[in-house]
Design brief:
about 35% helix, four-stranded mixed sheet, about 350 residues, alpha/beta
Length: about 350
């Protein structure tokens, strides 16, 4: 999305503004790139001498960034693959992610090219694999914070959890989430398979989480553009199904909105209890360190791209590059530091506002 079309909360520095900082060039394949980015202050910037996208995606006529986003590697979570195993060895998603992300700690930095993580449903008819790009986790957190801080309605949540099937299939919710685009109306959509009752089916339920549109009877916009453009076909020699479900920033912000709604309601209980959707959250919740790192990706990093017609050959990071760099940083800093939010350490996500340097100086 062009920077000038975004609401002010979501805008970042332009190419020329980043160029005006104290600029250094760095080889993106060198060890230490992530710590170099992490160490940038508001007045310094880095130019990557090349893209971090693997070379194979530059072969052929298709846009390498789009090709990498759609066909790049996603880290498979270490989950059980049958319903009986999931019920017998029930774990929380955060524990599964922790074990899976630990594998990145043993990989050379430049070899970490995952764009996100993926998991598989073990029950129901919809067996499409679920994909969670790293970049959308942070953008979803930012959108959630924006909704809480800058809108009157926040994220509107209507939960449908009265039917008997909720015990085994989870609840449904209709969500209204703000757009990041100036002048654009809200997105209204539906989520299914949200565990609400503590039982042995919770993990199987959340592994089937889905976000669907349209919402019947609604005249509002409800389908996010990231899904419109996620029509994908596998290469002929791949044994992977072409149909998949990718969770984007509005899905993630919407799920966080469900958690907030239930947390606010639980404050009246004694003692307060964590709601099941929080305990079974399939999305890693950004730490302050991850959000600060993302601020640097958005505001302090450029890429030299010889395919550009511009004189300086510089551009900002694309979605695939930001996802890869977030994956590498997870390997460097670890799950607890980077992909696990502790309110006592990181502050509350709904009040976090240091997304650009203007709010940090």
């Amino acid at each position: 999305m062009p920077n000038n079309r975004k609401k002010p909360y979501f805008r970042s520095r332009t190419i020329s503004e980043i160029k005006d900082l104290t600029l250094s060039e760095i080889n993106p394949q060198m060890s230490g790139l992530i710590r170099a980015i992490d160490g940038l202050d508001s007045s310094h910037s880095l130019v990557l001498s090349d893209s971090v996208i693997p070379q194979k995606f530059f072969e052929g006529q298709y846009n390498p960034a789009r090709k990498a986003y759609k066909h790049g590697a996603y880290l498979p979570l270490e989950q059980k693959l049958t319903l009986s195993e999931v019920i017998q060895y029930s774990e929380t998603p955060v524990r599964i992610r922790e074990k899976s992300f630990e594998r990145l700690r043993n990989m050379p930095e430049s070899n970490i090219n995952f764009l996100g993580y993926r998991f598989r449903p073990v029950s129901g008819r919809d067996k499409r694999e679920r994909f969670v790009p790293f970049v959308w986790l942070v953008e979803g957190a930012k959108l959630f914070a924006y909704a809480c801080q800058k809108t009157i309605k926040g994220i509107e949540v209507k939960i449908y959890d009265k039917a008997e099937r909720v015990k085994t299939e989870g609840a449904s919710a209709v969500l209204s989430v703000p757009s990041r685009t100036s002048g654009a109306s809200r997105y209204e959509f539906r989520m299914d398979h949200i565990p609400m009752i503590s039982n042995q089916n919770n993990l199987a339920t959340i592994l089937s989480l889905s976000s669907s549109a349209p919402v019947e009877g609604s005249s509002k916009r409800y389908q996010m553009r990231h899904k419109d453009f996620d029509i994908r076909y596998t290469y002929e020699n791949e044994r992977e199904e072409s149909d998949r479900m990718v969770f984007g920033p509005h899905d993630i912000a919407g799920y966080f909105g469900i958690i907030k709604r239930l947390v606010d309601e639980a404050k009246t209980s004694n003692p307060p209890k964590y709601p099941i959707p929080f305990i079974m959250c399939p999305f890693s919740i950004s730490s302050q360190h991850q959000m600060e790192f993302y601020k640097r990706l958005e505001n302090n990093v450029l890429v030299k791209d010889n395919s550009l017609k511009s004189k300086n050959k510089l551009r900002k990071l694309n979605l695939a590059e930001k996802s890869i760099l977030l994956g590498r940083s997870l390997g460097i800093f670890g799950n607890d530091d980077f992909a696990f939010n502790k309110p006592n350490r990181d502050g509350r996500l709904d009040t976090y506002n240091s997304w650009n340097w203007n709010n940090s100086d």
